[in-house]
Amino acid sequence: MGVIAMRLTSLRVGFFLAWRQILRSGRGTSALIIVIMTLTFLNLVVVNGILVGLVQGSSQAYRTQYSGDVLITNKSDESFIGRSQSVLRTVSGFSEVSSVTARYVSGGRIIANYRTKVGITERPDIVAAEIAGIDPDDEDAVTGLASRVVEGEYLDGTSEREVLIGSQLLARYTEGSVPGEEGLPDVEVGDRVRVAIGDKTIEVLVHGVVKSKIQAVNRRVFFIDRELRNLLGRTDLNVNEIAIRLHEGGDPYHVVDSLTAAGVAELGDIQTWREAQGDFFEDIETTFRLLGDVIGTIALVVAALTVFIVVLINAITRKRYIGIMKGIGICGNAITASYVYQSLFFALVGSGIGLSLLYGFIKPYIDANPIDFPFSDGIIVAPVPEVLGRVVALLVITMLAGYLPARIIVSRNTLKTILGR
Amino acid sequence: MIEAEKIVKTYGTGAAAFTALKGIDLRIRDGEFVGIMGRSGSGKSTLLYQLSLLDFPTSGRVLMDGTDMTGLGVETCTQYRIANFGYVFQDYALLPDLTALENVALPLLMLNRTRQEAYRLAGEALSNVGLQEKLRNRPNMLSGGEQQRVSIARATAACPKVIFADEPTASLDSETAERVMKVFKGLHGRGQTIVMVTHEEEFLHLFDRIIRLQDGSIAE
């Protein structure tokens, strides 16, 4: 028989032996190996997917809760976006644009408990904040701010001297923060606080509290736009931020290019939501991906060692039968192949169950019920090509882990193994 | 024809060295039924292992049809064994995960027979030893005598040139042993070369020739 024919025969006989051993060996052991393989697969895919999903969820939250798909901000050397109303008209003219919100933004301070702390040694509670003026309906259309209200109510067009206050500005939401970062104590919905911008101060009623996954939102106080505009004396109607939401499938880069072509880039900085986030999210995603890979590699090593030990024990236990097979003329490659097939089978079944669990239950469930991380709605990122790549890695490592111990036992002296030595 | 020339087999080294075969010369012709006998420790199984290429002598040569087999690689010997030899072991040595039919078919599959052909030949071999009703039984569902007959069927299914049997009746009661020996007698009657190690004198009359070993040498 030629070498190739011999190899093919060995593979065929190996399969014959493997299948029968799988069918007829202990069900408990097989089930245990399959459970280990399934858990390894989930460890390999789900842990990585959650880590990456954590960052991607945060990145998506930035888009859906703050920046929109495209964000226009004032240039760093300007205090507003030039000819803002003209820019808004231009933006609204694009067919891809679904909704737009314009924001007046200014640094300021929130002063609380000034009525109760009147003693000569007492000082009211003060915290620095960003003061934003918005059109409530436009803002809600772009960032869904109304759904972030956790106490009180959202602003409406008639709200006078009423504000929404970000959760990070309140002590009860910032427990455990580093010293200096604590929020205002004892401020509830319905309380009055003072908002100071430069040398102007206004007393307002806390109408609601907003809590977002984006800390920049949580550190803001939201006014109705005209009220803040009056406070700032911004009679030219120029704003500081314009957040643009596109229709589903809209290309933010195309809109950025169109706005640039329309001359908007001369009046403000135009960025896609990804660009607006800077490199931070990308860096942290890369870091988490690396971390996931390290954890996945450990899972692979554990799976490989498990299979190695299981196959080694199996082969040692059946050492004599291996010797007999060699004695009656079954070549070593066929016997080794039988163990590789068995390892492959367990890895395939484990991966199959893992895939079913992942796409049939875990991912749909977490997509519907994201994990509530402080800065992200955690989802599982598990793109099919990447997951299949990990399945292949698991199969290869498992086959190797099955091959090595089988080879060790098979290569032992035939007669000694027959005699059980 | 199997020829052994001055076979010496030594186990261990130095002071612990033990010589199990001390220069054995013998020749087994095609169609012979040869019994290798001797006391425990006389070297009869060791001689069988050398003749059947399961082991290699420390010195001397084993020739098959004039071809020197000593020094051949493990895989070459394995291929030679499956194409030319059948083995019957004392404790049957059946694979527990396989049925009787599959145990017998396994060497045939290794000889590149198709599944159907291997199963057909295996079925015939099992019928020849009276086990046509037990094809689907696994070893743990067979008696000792039945297991040994499966083992004989496995050894004969591919029509090997030589069958080597190492004390095939040692684990069986006398009645079953006699039935098993009848199977060997039948095979010999059809011209099969058989080399059998045994210590049971009651079967002496079945052999064409007896090789008696004593302390690693041929006694007569």
Could you give the topology of this structure?
The complex is a heterodimer of chains A (421) and B (220).
Chain A: H1 3-24, H2 27-67, E1 70-73, H3 84-92, E2 97-112, E3 125-134, H4 136-143, E4 149-152, E5 162-166, E6 192-197, E7 200-210, H5 215-218, E8 220-224, H6 225-232, E9 241-246, H7 252-261, E10 269-272, H8 273-277, H9 280-317, H10 319-327, H11 332-368, E11 371-373, E12 376-378, H12 384-410, H13 414-418
Parallel strand pairs in A: 3-8, 5-7
Antiparallel strand pairs in A: 1-9, 1-10, 2-3, 2-6, 2-9, 4-7, 5-8, 6-7, 11-12
Helix pairs in contact in A: 1-11, 2-9, 2-11, 2-12, 9-12, 11-12
Chain B: E1 2-11, E2 18-28, E3 33-38, H1 44-51, E4 59-64, E5 67-68, H2 74-84, E6 85-88, H3 100-110, H4 115-128, H5 144-156, E7 162-166, H6 174-189, E8 193-197, E9 209-214, E10 217-218
Parallel strand pairs in B: 3-8, 3-9, 6-7, 7-8
Antiparallel strand pairs in B: 1-2, 1-4, 4-5, 9-10
Helix pairs in contact in B: 3-4, 3-5, 4-5, 5-6
Description:
The complex is a heterodimer of chains A (421) and B (220). Chain A is α+β, with helices and mostly antiparallel strands and 421 residues long. Chain A has 13 helices and twelve strands. In chain A, the strands form two sheets. A six-stranded mixed barrel of chain A has the order 2-3-8-5-7-6. In chain A, strands 11-12 form a two-stranded antiparallel sheet. With 220 residues, chain B is α/β, with parallel strands linked by helices. In chain B, 33% of the residues lie in helices and 26% in strands. Chain B contains six helices and ten strands, in the order E-E-E-H-E-E-H-E-H-H-H-E-H-E-E-E. In chain B, the strands form two sheets. Chain B has a six-stranded mixed sheet, sandwiched between helices. A four-stranded antiparallel sheet of chain B has the order 2-1-4-5, with helices on one face. In chain B, helix 6 links the parallel strand 7 and strand 8. The radius of gyration of chain B is 17 Å and the shape is globular. The chains are: A alpha+beta (421), B alpha/beta (220). The interface between A and B is medium-sized, with 28 and 28 residues.
